[in-house]
Specification:
four-stranded mixed beta sheet, 33% helix, globular, alpha/beta, 357 residues
């Protein structure tokens, strides 16, 4: 089927892990178990078939550099797990809008270059799928880029909590253009949200009434710096909270659930620590409480999911499917167009992949 040509918006930690991964896992036997990857092959596409042909950023330290160099440029601070050769792909100047939060403005300085012709580049390079890795809270910038993506008729993976795929207006726009979107807000392979969802469903399935629950997250990357700015956390809190409450049959009072980022701890770098507590009531009104601490490298934890999402988006392109992809979005994302339990969402994903043209 050939290569899947990909463009990346935002060359941060997540982009770094994604690019490292597609260079690490090449020429693997079909029966090889790849940590963090759910599918070695999706349709006729393997991991190595993903090719980054364009990248956009606004940081003066990254614009103009080859992607292989930019992904390891500060303030990026994620785990280096693969050597990436010179790719021959230069980071182009993107659009700023609200892409720089006040708490990262001392780390990210705008490139003096003019904004590149984004839609023109996407068309000229035959981009199939665009990945949105903009900083959390980049509402205006995301919607600006969506217009460029629609103009160029590319598929989109929306990895951040700016609601596009789940909104009827945008879903209809993608459907009209005949291109798919997978979104919104990437759900890591085994992260805070999927863990909290599964535990919530476990309580519900076993007949335990959930009285109170919280999820507190902190880490050392620029995402957590941005989340210190409360105005930028609104959609993130909505996304993470709805992902958990969607697993509750009877719901919960808003005052009895708290899900969201807590603080920035620089020495953690791209590591994230998550604390989850559930307080419940079992038979006879007896209390039952659970606490979990999860430690992950944040960006590699999501990169494997994006690898699968990109290949699903390309399958949809091949099949002439436009609009929001319900099955892949439900399994890969925190805020899909429609929420399902994770076991049902996984079955929907597998059914989508298995469809023959």
């Amino acid at each position: 089927m050939g290569k899947i040509k990909v463009a990346i918006i935002g060359v941060g930690n997540c982009a770094s892990s994604f690019v490292q991964g597609i260079h690490k896992y090449v020429e693997l036997p079909e029966d090889t178990v790849v940590p963090g990857i759910m599918h070695n092959r999706i349709g006729d596409y393997r991991i190595e078939d993903i090719e980054v042909v364009a990248a956009f950023d606004i940081d003066q330290n990254k614009v103009g550099k080859d992607v292989s160099e930019a992904i390891f440029t500060e303030p990026n601070n994620t785990l280096k797990f693969a050597e990436v050769p010179h790719m021959g792909v230069t980071v182009e100047r993107g659009m700023t809008h609200d892409g720089i939060g006040k708490y990262v403005s001392h780390l990210v300085k705008k490139s003096p270059h003019s904004t590149a012709d984004i839609s023109g580049i996407l068309k000229d390079r035959g981009v199939d799928v665009v990945i949105n890795y903009l900083p959390v809270g980049s509402e205006m910038a995301t919607k600006w880029y969506v217009e460029q993506i629609l103009e160029a008729r590319c598929a989109m993976i929306n990895c951040i909590p700016v609601f596009i795929a789940r909104e009827d207006y945008w879903g209809a726009r993608f459907e009209e253009r005949g291109v798919p979107i997978v979104g919104d807000d990437i759900k890591s392979q085994l992260g805070a949200t999927i863990t909290h969802r599964v535990l919530t469903r476990l309580f519900e399935d076993r007949g335990v009434k959930i009285l109170n629950t919280y999820q507190l997250n902190f880490g050392g990357n620029t995402d957590f710096l941005n989340l210190l700015e409360r105005e930028r956390t609104v959609s993130k809190r909505i996304s993470k909270t709805s992902a958990v409450t969607s697993q509750m049959t009877n719901g919960i009072d808003p005052d009895n659930i708290h899900v969201g980022p807590s603080d920035h701890v620089p020495w953690l770098q791209d590591r994230k620590w998550c604390h989850i507590r559930l307080e419940g009531q079992s038979f006879g009104g007896a209390p039952i409480n659970m606490e979990v601490k999860l430690e992950v490298w944040d960006s590699p934890n999501s990169a494997g999911v994006v690898v699968d999402a990109v290949r699903c988006a390309k399958l949809a392109l091949d099949r002439g499917i436009g609009g929001a992809l319900v099955g892949p979005s439900s399994y890969f994302m925190k805020s899909p167009p429609k929420q399902f339990t994770d076991d049902v969402a996984r079955d929907m994903l597998e059914a989508f992949i298995a469809v023959e043209e």
